[in-house]
Design a protein that fits this description.
The structure holds two protein chains of two kinds.
Chain A lengths: L3 E5 L9 H10 L9 E5 L7 E5 L8 H5 L5 E3 L5 E3 L9 H5 L35 H7 L11 H4 L6 E5 H15 L8 H5 L25
Antiparallel strand pairs in A: 1-6, 2-3, 4-5
Chain B lengths: L1 H23 L31 H13 L3 H6 L1
The chains are: A alpha+beta, B mainly alpha.
Amino acid sequence: MARMKFLCDAERCIECNGCVTACKQENDVPWGVNRRRVVTINDGVPGERSISVACMHCSDAPCAAVCPVDCFYRSEEGVVLHDKDLCIGCGYCFYACPFGAPQFPQAGAFGVRGKMDKCTFCAGGPEKDNSEVEFRKYGRNRLAEGKLPACAEMCSTKALLAGDGDTISEIYRQRVTVRGKGSEVWGWGTAYGRPEAPKGAPGAPGAAPAAPTGGKS
Amino acid sequence: MMGRITQLCVIACGAMAALMLSGCGERPQVIQYKQGKYQGKPDEPPYAAAPFNGDQAKWDRDIRNRTQNQNEYKRIGS
């Protein structure tokens, strides 16, 4: 059984925002809601890095843990989805999510917060697959059509990968092996440091990220 | 005169009792949540509907092939 995940290769992302546009177009996302966005670190500084961020479909999702009405569920494919008929728009999930994935439409005259909207991995929601109701509430269900999320499939540099976690990590691993760099700017070592690295060395906790040393991307 | 007052009292008491009893028939209008369990509608797996019609193996195969389209080393050849 597939365990769907996103993976963004910061060495390849060119901050074109094509994934953002594709998501909005594919799912007819309302004005003011961005299910996906591109975040740039050290913008304008040589060596800047961009990464496309949306719901990461956590294995142990904090949004689901804090939801007071338990409207979240995890599909067989590992996609975190929610029932909009049950959502009360309280916003707890927004505070709990480390990626800022939950979004709230504010269409009312006084900024009234609507029901939560987030990336569905293009898997729709708890309505009849590919029905009009499902599209209106959750967007398109591409998984039911045998397709992957629109954001990843149209990514021009294939920086954003989507699919079974093992498969896409294998694709990424092959890339890094061929180009000879990349894993140091995305992954466990960057987030938590390498235990064998001396203090202050690149990759060690608290150290500055290593400067690019060249090589083909 | 007294008879009329008694009659009115009986009617008032009867109406009061009927009003109070109607409260007993009130049904709860708030959803009873079970803590920690998904409370929404059930969802069907992505391979349930057309074009897969329940064929999970075909869906898995299609998704696996589609995922490999993101791999240039296989799609174009290294």
